[in-house]
Design a protein that fits this description.
Shape: globular
Largest sheet: 5 strands, parallel
Distance between the termini: 38 Å
Number of domains: 2
CATH topology of the largest domain: Rossmann fold
CATH architecture of the largest domain: 3-Layer(aba) Sandwich
Strand content: 15-25%
CATH superfamily of the largest domain: Response regulator
Helix content: 40-55%
Mean pLDDT: 83
Structural class: alpha/beta
Order of helices and strands: EHEHEHEHEHEEEEHEHHEE
Strand order of the largest sheet: 2-1-3-4-5
CATH class of the largest domain: Alpha Beta
Amino acid sequence: MAPRKKTQVAVLSPRPGTGGLVAAALPGAAVYKTAPSFIAAVLRRAPDLAVIDMECPEISGADLILVLRRNPGASAMLIAAVSSAPRTSREIAAGFDTGADEYFVLPRDAALLGPRLLNLLANRRGRAAAGREEEAPVKIGALEVSLASRTAALKGRELPLTSLEFDMLLYFAGNAGRVVGRGTLIQQVWKEDLGVNLRSVDKRIEVLRKKLKGSGVTISTVFGIGYIFKA
């Protein structure tokens, strides 16, 4: 049996407190104090998980997440946002909208930071392990979807789907032709409703629609209820 690849974690935080918390939970995490050095490292070799200080002085955390999600080489990695300033549920939801997979507010969530990051990575490894037996791509419309690598390609070009968007695509495909409510999506795809509201779901669906354009896949709105997926 081949040895499991070591988990790669990159942290952007000009403040030692945040970097120290992540390093304590995930020994070996690479901590970067400046945005340019972090971006260069992540784009050179995308880690399994990127932890981003949302109050980085050189670039807003939201803008940085958007930049990474739009880069094909880094779009599939897990991203956790960390804020040391008080945040409302709406602000946290906006963080998820930009592409964050997790969001922490310190010091409130300090005790949960390590366990939730480990859980995030474990879930990713579990999904990858479950998909190893299904190496052959699955056809969804004109898309070729690999469950093993968690990627979707259109005419040989890999789509820059985030981890959440890929999960949404799979859930919709498994419920093709059925009306899926927004609340159901939150429960089945987000798993937790921390900071997620119905408007956040609508925004994520709109982004996913744009990425799936030309694939023969449609996600239509059923007014007042949710969505229906057809391929």
